Amino acid sequence: MNDSQVIVQADKTVIKIHNVRVKGLNTQSLENILIEKLESMVRVIGVTGSSIEMDVYGLDEEAILKDSEGFIKAVSLAEGITASEVTAIAYAKKICQVDFDHIPSKEGHACMKERWL
Amino acid sequence: MFDKAVIIPTGDEIKEGIVLDTDSPMIMQTLIRLNPLCQIARRMPINDLEAHIAEGVSQAAAEGADLVVIIGGSGGGHRYSATLGKDFTHSALEALLSPQFSGEIYGKNGHMWCKLLCGFVGDTLVINVPGPYREALAAMEAFADTYDKAPADLKEINRAMLEAVIKQYPVSALQ
User: Fold this and answer.
1) Is residue B3 part of a domain?
2) Residue in B132, B173, B171, B83 with CA at minimum distance from that of residue A57
3) In chain B, positions 103-162, which contact chain A (CB-CB < 8 Å)?
4) Is A27 in contact with B174 (Cβ distance < 8 A)?
5) Is A116 on the interface with B (CB under 8 A)?
6) Residues B81 and A55 sit within 8 Å (Cβ to Cβ)
7) Which domain covers residue A98, as residue numbers?
8) What is the pTM assigned to this prediction?
């Protein structure tokens, strides 16, 4: 085995939208809509049938939350998303930098269940 | 050059049709560009479970695939964020591949954002790409360029794919 590890210095805000119906989502389409609206890079990182989690790079949570209605409206334009009056931003959190020593050097090798629970 | 390739998408959201699998057609196009004569099969999406991923890769290898591309499950997932899915592709491949080369990308928040592996199961070359389309595209283009020049250089293939993914973030990187 030969491992290399890289630490990237990027500021991002993690945003989760909930109470939304998702079926057949084209994530590229959603990312393109939000990139155009926010003028920042957006990456969809987690989707369920009722929520969407995404990373927005280079914007603080305040910038997102001050126009949360516009944000949700933009999201609802994407193919495969149906928003309703209860659709909302569940959270928007900017990531915090940790000390270099707190970045794990290697994943554990316990069984799948032990590693994740 | 590979003659038979297998693409295996992973993830419950892909399997259930919540998210469209736009990566597989892109990967197929990239592989056809690399070898217009190759046969490519896209397998049914599988759940994010180590045993399922290992079984899918082993089965493709046993059936004579020269190349297997696994999509998704490359991040830290639930281990770092309780709201994300459970990503197991890298841990499944880590247990399967020999020899293998891997590279990990961590964010400044200490979370693992991506792990890419490259190695063999028997005579079958296996690589993984991240699920997000832009990262998958960058990784596949880097794979194609590097594989075309030096198909046996696993370390270089893995390095090139990792660098291509890093370039998708608006960042500076510390090795």
Assistant:
1) no
2) B171
3) 103-113, 132-135, 155, 158-159, 162
4) no
5) yes
6) no
7) 12-116
8) 0.88
How distant is the Cα of B148 from the closest Cα of chain A, in angstroms? 22
Q: What is the span of the domain harbouring residue B76?
A: 47-174
CATH number of A67's domain: 3.30.70
**Structural domains in chain A (count):** 1
Can you give the CATH number for the domain in which B116 is found? 3.40.980.10
The structure tokens listed for A107 are 């994943």
Q: Could you read off the pLDDT of B149-175 as tens digits, one per residue?
A: 999 999 999 999 999 999 988 865 554
The total of structural domains in chain B comes to 1
- With beta carbons under 8 A apart, name residues in chain B contacting A2: 100-102, 155
Say if B79 falls within a structural domain: yes
User: Within a domain: residue B98?
Assistant: yes
For residue B67, being part of any structural domain is answered with yes
**B residues 31-60 closer than 8 Å to A (CB):** 49-50
Report ipTM (2 d.p.): 0.82
B65 to chain A nearest CA, in Å? Answer: 23
Q: Which residue of B has its CA nearest to A22?
A: B18
Spatial strand order in the sheet of B39-42: B39-42, B4-9, B67-71, B124-129, B112-121, B100-107, A2-9, B172-174
Predicted confidence (pLDDT) per residue in B98-110, tens digit: 999 999 888 877 7
B91 shares contact with chain A (CB less than 8 Å): yes
Q: Identify which of B50, B5, B42 has the alpha carbon closest to the alpha carbon of residue B21.
A: B42
